[in-house]
Design brief:
alpha+beta, five-stranded mixed barrel, three-stranded antiparallel β-sheet
Length: 486
């Protein structure tokens, strides 16, 4: 055991990254910098090289080849001892001083206090050492603690042990390098404990999609349409917010700690990037139908809030028990993706119910029909999509200028080549309450969804016809296309 301890103490990872002397030369004066390199406190520089826009001092890193060229936050004298590393080095020095024996490995029980995370009480996984206080935790544990200890009034993050204000922003800890010295000790001497903690982390990542959705080629709605079999998702994270439809782009602002945790889990390596989105039920509780959302991009703000770009992928039905998971957010034990009951193509004729409406739209927007090549004896779903888009654009043009860009961004482009999503697109483009447009989720026929959406269009225009002075945008649109629609 003495030989093992001596080898560790003499290893490159346990030498000062600045002067290259063993850290054990000054075991009570070891500090770890934001670049994850550990040095003797005597090697800290004394000069300040600049400051951030908010006045936080910056000092040059004394480690040769450090990638952080702008410098490290704070004053060098403020950097405290690396609590965990100092304790581990002290134990290694005691073992190295003991008589040589035949024991080939270190005893975890003796090092547990030094190398365990003070938050999860397991072996440190990706140990992140906070500066300037020097306390260390698993990366995932540190991030969870920062979800709850941020001082939102002053934009400060605080240490989970001593409450010291941390100069770095939240995104810095998402990619903060792991403590080099601690990682080396754990990997070389306690691989079983590290493997156990890694397995715990793996289990924490919610599998928010089926095997098909986890594959690179699998947009779930495409796969379901192809094989007409329901795909079951296990342990689907749920976000109760607003009604969303497949194909819809939904920007989200996540600020609650539980949903920030959910976001990190599903976007972690091995995560599915999918979650379920449900609207609030008017009578309380949550509905059984929702939309499977895919996370496209995430931008974390300095205080830990997240701006998330998501897109609706498919409709799902909650089929299993819904309960609050360990992260504080709802999780459905099982959910089934709902396939469409029929396939339609853009060149198929429109449903008969929509013919009269299509004729009036064609008269109001003749350029749309003139652009169809070759001309057909019947109205195709693709042409109907373009006519509906023209009507929605006419409605947007009648809005105040400051609202037009936002309205178009909310509706998105019309799915000209995806008639399965045309009804959903109309559902969000028309001024229909969520509890009414929720009926689209209950309809698995894309044709019937189109019919349902056009019924709402007719009803809305009839209710706010051209003679109705209070008709607003729809009233003026009714004047454009003629009213009433029969």
């Amino acid at each position: 055991m003495a030989d093992i301890a001596r080898q560790l103490l003499a290893s490159r990872e346990l030498c000062c990254a600045a002067c290259e002397k063993p850290l054990s030369d000054a075991p009570d004066a070891i500090t770890t910098l934001p670049c994850a390199a550990s040095i003797h406190r005597a090697c800290l520089p004394t000069d300040i090289i600049g400051a951030t826009p908010d006045g936080t001092p910056l000092f040059a890193c004394p480690v040769p080849g450090c990638r952080d060229r702008r410098g490290h936050f704070g004053t060098p004298q403020d950097y405290g001892r690396d609590v965990a590393l100092v304790a581990a080095v002290d134990l290694l020095m005691a073992k190295a001083a003991a008589p040589t024996d035949d024991i080939k490995e270190l005893d975890w029980d003796e090092f547990e206090d030094a190398l365990s995370c003070p938050l999860c009480y397991l072996a440190l996984a990706e140990p992140v050492t906070l500066d300037p206080c020097g306390h260390t935790g698993c990366r995932t544990c540190v991030l969870r603690s920062l979800d709850h200890v941020s001082d939102t009034h002053r934009g400060l993050l605080r240490c989970f042990v001593c409450r010291t204000a941390l100069p770095a922003s939240y995104p810095a800890y998402l990619s903060h390098p792991a403590n080099i010295a601690l990682t080396h000790i754990l990997a070389t001497s306690f691989p079983a404990e590290v493997a156990e903690r890694t397995e715990h982390l793996r289990q924490e990542i919610d599998a928010a999609a089926s095997e098909a959705a986890a594959r690179e080629d699998a947009d779930p709605v495409v796969r379901v349409h192809r094989d007409r079999e329901r795909t079951t998702i296990s342990r689907l994270p749920l976000f109760v917010c607003n009604l969303a439809f497949p194909g819809q782009s939904v920007p989200l602002h996540l600020f609650e700690p539980r949903y920030r945790l959910m976001l990190r889990r599903i976007t972690a390596e091995g995560g599915s990037r999918y979650f379920g989105m449900l609207m609030y039920h008017p009578q309380g509780g949550i509905p059984t139908l929702g939309t499977l959302m895919r996370v496209n991009e995430v931008e974390f703000l300095p205080d830990g809030r997240a701006l998330v770009d998501t897109t609706g992928a498919a409709v799902f039905a909650v089929t299993g028990h819904v309960a609050t998971g360990d992260g504080g957010y709802l999780v459905a034990e099982t959910a089934d993706l709902i396939p469409d009951s029929e396939h339609i193509s853009p060149q198929d004729p429109i449903p008969g119910y929509c013919a009269a409406t299509a004729d009036r739209l064609r008269e109001a927007f003749p350029r749309v029909s003139a652009s169809q090549s070759p001309p057909r004896a019947y109205t195709t779903i693709q042409e109907l999509s373009m006519l509906a888009d023209a009507a929605v654009n006419a409605m947007i043009a009648l809005m105040p200028p400051q609202h037009r860009t936002g309205a178009r961004a909310q509706f998105g482009p019309v799915p000209v080549n995806d008639p399965h999503r045309l009804g959903y697109w109309l559902g969000r483009a028309l001024p229909v309450p969520e509890h009414v447009s929720y009926a689209l989720m209950m309809e698995d026929s894309p044709r019937e969804r189109i019919v349902l959406a056009f019924r709402w269009m007719e009803t809305a225009i009839q209710r706010t016809g051209p003679d109705n002075r209070n008709g607003g945008v729809l009233g003026r649109l009714a004047s454009t296309i003629g009213c009433p629609i029969q």
